Amino acid sequence: MTVQARIGEVTERIARRSRDARARYLERIAAAAEAKPRRGHLGCANLAHGVAACGAMDKERLAGSDAPNLGIVTAYNDMLSAHQPFERFPGIIRDAVREVGATAQVAGGVPAMCDGVTQGEAGMELSLFSRDVIALSTAIALSHQMFDAAVFLGVCDKIVPGLVIGALSFGHLPAVFVPAGPMTSGLSNDEKARTRQLYAEGKVGREALLASEMKSYHGPGTCTFYGTANSNQMLMEIMGLHLPGASFVNPNTPLRDELTRVAARRAIAISALGNEYTPVGRIIDEKAVVNGVVGLHATGGSTNHTLHLVAMAAAAGITLTWDDFADLAEVTPLLARVYPNGKADVNHFHAAGGMGFLIRELLGAGLLHRDVTTVWGTGLEGYLVEPGLDENGGIVWREAAAQSGNTDILRGVAEPFQPTGGLKVLDGPLGRAVIKTSAVARERHVIEAPARVFHSQEELQAAFRAGTLTGDFVAVVRFQGPKANGMPELHKLTPPLAVLQDRGQRVALVTDGRMSGASGKVPAAIHVTPEAADGGAIAKIRDGDIIRVDALNGRLDVLVDAAEFAARAPAEADLSSSHVGVGRELFAGFRHLVGPAEKGAAIFAA
Prior knowledge:
Layout: H1 5-33, H2 44-51, H3 56-63, E1 69-74, H4 89-98, E2 103-109, H5 115-118, H6 127-142, E3 149-153, H7 159-169, E4 175-178, H8 189-200, H9 206-216, H10 228-238, H11 254-269, H12 280-283, H13 286-299, H14 305-315, H15 322-329, H16 346-351, H17 354-364, E5 385-389, E6 395-399, E7 423-428, E8 431-436, E9 446-454, H18 457-465, E10 473-477, H19 482-485, H20 494-502, E11 507-511, E12 524-529, E13 546-550, E14 555-558, H21 562-567, H22 588-593
Parallel strand pairs: 1-2, 1-3, 3-4, 9-10, 10-11, 11-12
Antiparallel strand pairs: 5-6, 7-8, 8-12, 9-13, 13-14
Helix pairs in contact: 4-11, 6-7, 7-14, 8-9, 8-20, 10-13
C-alpha cells in the first residue's frame, strides 16, 4: 500500500528542501566508511593504549582487524531510576558479543540529568543544553576510532536526542539503541495529579505530597507517564533504531536482559565486517523522520520533540520544520490515551498492544513509510512482532496484537480518540509557537483574555498564593527561552493554572519556555519564537493586553492596535541571576550560540 497523499507530499518537500545538505552528509559518511576498521590503521602505540586493559582473549582479537569491536556509549548513573539498570548492561553486552567472536568496550559515558529532580530549580536551566553536551560527549567517546559499530544506552528526555545527534556525527557506524524499560506501575496518575493540586491549594501538606510522589516514582526504570522519556522510546522503535517491541519491557527481567543480548549481537551483524552493513546515517532519512513525527502525533507525545526531532534531523542533513509537524498532524489520528492525555501509563499501553499494534494500524492506513531501513534488517513491517522467551530463555517473536486489549487506552484508526494529532502550530504577531491539544478540552481550544505578565514561574506562583489571579486571563511567562536562561521546563505552572481552570476561570499560558511531555489540560502556547531575549514581540506585551490563543485556527494574536504595538519598546529583564551558580556560568557560550526554538534550539550550526 502506498502512503497517504499528505504523508507523501510532506516527505517529498522535506527531501527537496534538504537535498544539498543531505547529499553532503551522505558523502561525508561514505568517505568515513572507506577506512574499515579504522583501528587497523592506528599506530602500534595508539592501539596498545586502546587495548591495554583488556583480557587476553579480547586483546588478541583487537590486535587484528577482522574481529568486530562494539563501542558502548552509556548514560548510566545510579541516581536516576531510568538509567540505574544500565549498570549491568556492559557485562551483558560483552558476554553476548564474545559468543560470536567479537569484543565490546565502554567507549565513554555521557551525562544524564533528570528534569524531575531539577524542576523549578536552578539546574533546570542546564537541562536543554545537556542534550548538546551529550552529543559532544558521544563524539568524544567515538573519536578514538576503535569501533565497528556502537550501542547506545539511554532513555530520558535530552539523553536519547543527544545520543542520536552524536551517533549521526559518526553516521558511517551502525548504531543500535538499547533501552532499559519503564518502572512497574505505582500510584495512579489521576491520584498523583489530584494530590499535586491539593498541595497547590494548601489543602494537604508536604508530607502527603511526598508520600504520593514516592508511590509514583518507586523503583528502577523510566517514569511511567507518557512524557519525553517514553516518547523517545516510541521514536527509537518507529524510526527503526530499536529491536522490535523493545521499548516498554520492564528492567531487570529475563526478557529485558535477553533483548539486550540480541541487540548487541545485532549491532555486530550489521557492521561493515559482516554482510548486512547498515550505517545509522542511512537509517535516519526523510522517511524515518516523517515516521517519527507521525508516531508522535498518533500517541500524543512530548512537545519537546518539536525541538529534538528538528535537531536530530539536522544532524543527518535533513531540514524539518514546524509546518511539517502541523501538516502531518492534520492527517494523523490520535490512537493512544496515556497520561497526561489519559489515565493509563505506558505499562498499560504496552499491555493493550503497544508499539506492534500501533505500527500495524498506522501502516495499514498508509500513514507510515514501510520501505525504510532499520537495525532489524527489515522494513517497518518487521516491527509487527513482539518478543517473548522460549523454554530455554531465548527470544521468540510473536505476531503483534491485531486488536487492542483496551480501547480506553489504545485504538485503531477506525475509531480514534480524535481524528487529528494533538499538536498545533500557532502563528501571529507574537511570533510562532506550538500547542498540545490532546489533553485539553475542546471548549478550551480558544482562549481570549487579558494578559498577566510574569518574568518567571516563581512570580506567577507568588501571585497565585496571594490570591490575585482572579477572573479570566492569559499568563505570559517570558524571558524563558534558550538565549535567556536555557529554556527550562515550567512544570510548576501546571498545578496553579489547573486549579484556577477547575474553579471555572478561563486561563491559558503563553511562554517562550517549555512545558514538555507533561503538558496537560491547560492550553499552553509554548516555545514562542522569537523569544523575548532575542527581540521577540512577546517582550512587548503589557498587563491587560487582550491575548487570543486559538488552537482551532492556529493563531496567536495580541488584540492591540498594530501601529501602537509596533511602536512599543520591548521590556527588559535582569537575567544575571540565571547566568551564575550551579554551573550556569560555564554555559555562557551556549546561550550565545544557541539557535531559535523552531530550529531545534541547538548550539550546532544548521
